[in-house]
Specification:
Elements: H1 31-44, H2 48-69, H3 71-77, H4 84-106, H5 115-144, H6 152-169, H7 174-203, H8 207-225, H9 262-279, H10 281-291, H11 293-298, H12 303-330, H13 341-351, H14 356-380, H15 385-398, H16 401-407, H17 415-423
InterPro entries: ABC_transp_permease (IPR001851)
Pfam families: BPD_transp_2 (PF02653)
Main location: membrane
Length: 424
């Protein structure tokens, strides 16, 4: 029997009502997006051993740079062939002094005169890690959902501006004031990120380009607002007044330490994100879209709506990061208040493989690098730029798992295992 007269099968074509509100769905697998998606999958599905070895390799390579930059090492290297042990000893002393100073400035200062001074470094690490946890959690949700959100910097800054406005213009009771300031940061951060999600859903615009552009818009918008009465409110410098006492996040251990309740909120956010991504229906849809967008659409998931939800959720978390930075740490807003939080959060999310626990640990590592670098510079005369080198090298190794495996002679994972990890 012949089946030639049968009509052609078209299971690949989406149902007309499956993506209501869109007239033309752009190809979700353009060559550039396909490469980016496969690269991200390779990063997110690498195991913890590869991540740990990437950090070790970065520290070793940075140690070599520290030794090369040290004047005593360079002097000893002039007669290396006559007395090679002098060069090796000088290099060891230089690297050991640098990393010891980093430990003292980030974890525990065993040379401090008092116990409070000795444990202060670890609290500074937690302070620096708090906004990174918030922002990286949001980015990680996007990465696992197939969206490459590069706009955390602008979202953090907009959230910080909203929290500052509520903190300096309203006069409310203590609990109400800080809660409303935090909510304002969440709302504004979510709406700002939602712009990219909406454009992605309606027009297929690349979220990478849109979020990068939104970063610049946010930076210059906040810079402008700081020259007006909206945020400056007196004075000639582009800086806001300090937020009211009632709008500040309470300190955890009194005035001797800067650690505030924002850190506990960050841990709670990590737990919430874990539940959302691993145990909730919407989280399953997020992961389904990230694993295979076409299959998710065929299964009846409104992919465009997921784009918006993911971006809004990421913006809410980034806005919380901005609120914690202003209401808990800085107390005032400047154009540079966000620092490099949004960009460092990208590395933190990748290093933590976009999982909440890994993200928290990676943020603690970056917080330690940030908190310990000043003492490393003053005590061991190590250039503070070495910290940036460590971060950059970590990014390099994290982005290239095969390179790390080849360096440490690790076997490549089999294809079936990779498929299972992506599906999970």
């Amino acid at each position: 029997m012949s089946h030639e007269p049968e009509s052609p099968r078209t299971p690949e074509v989406p149902e007309p009502d499956a993506e209501a509100g869109t007239r033309a769905q752009p190809d979700p697998m353009r060559p550039d997006e396909r490469w980016l998606r496969e690269t991200m999958r390779g990063i997110l599905t690498s195991n913890w051993l590869v991540t740990l070895l990437a950090i070790v390799a970065a520290l070793v390579l940075s140690g070599l740079l520290i030794a090369i930059a040290d004047e005593d090492v360079r002097d000893a290297s002039t007669y290396f062939f006559a007395r090679p042990l002098d060069t090796l000893a000088a290099a060891w002393d230089s690297v050991a002094a640098a990393y010891t100073s980093l430990f003292r400035g980030a974890v525990f200062d065993f040379q401090a005169p008092t116990l409070a001074r000795a444990i202060r470094p670890i609290t500074e690490t937690l302070v620096a890690a708090t906004p990174l946890i918030f922002a990286a959690l949001g980015l990680g949700m996007g990465f696992r959902s197939g969206l490459f959100n590069i706009g955390a910097q602008g979202q953090v800054l907009m959230g910080a501006a909203a929290a500052t406005y509520v903190g300096i213009t309203w006069s409310l009771p203590v609990v109400v004031h800080v809660v409303l300031a935090v909510i304002a940061a969440m709302v504004v951060g979510g709406l700002w990120a939602g712009i990219a999600g909406f454009l992605k859903a309606r027009t297929g615009a690349s979220e990478v380009i849109v979020t990068i552009m939104l970063n610049w818009i946010a930076i210059w918008l906040v810079t402008y607002l700081l020259t007006t009465t909206i945020l400056r409110q007196g004075g000639s410098r582009p800086i806001s007044p300090a937020v009211g006492e009632n709008a500040r996040l309470p300190l955890l251990f009194g005035d001797a330490f800067r650690l505030h309740w924002g850190f506990l909120l960050a841990l709670a956010a990590a737990a919430l994100v874990w539940w959302l991504m691993e145990r909730s229906t919407i989280g399953f849809k997020f992961r389904a879209v990230g694993a295979n967008m076409d299959a998710a659409r065929t299964a009846g998931i409104n992919v465009n709506l997921i784009f918006v939800f993911v971006m809004v959720s990421a913006g809410i978390l980034a806005g919380l990061g901005g609120a914690s930075q202003i209401l808990g740490t800085d107390k005032t807003l400047q154009a540079g208040s966000a620092g490099s939080i949004g960009f460092d959060a990208i590395t933190v999310a990748l290093l933590g493989r976009s999982r909440p626990l890994g993200t928290v640990l990676a943020a603690l590592l970056f917080g330690a690098l940030r908190a310990g670098s000043p003492l490393m510079q003053t005590v061991s005369n190590t250039p503070i730029d070495i910290v940036l080198v460590i971060q950059a090298v970590i990014v390099l190794f994290i982005a290239a798992p095969p390179l790390v495996r080849s360096m440490f002679f690790l076997p490549s994972p089999d294809g079936s295992r990779r498929v299972k990890e992506v599906a999970a």
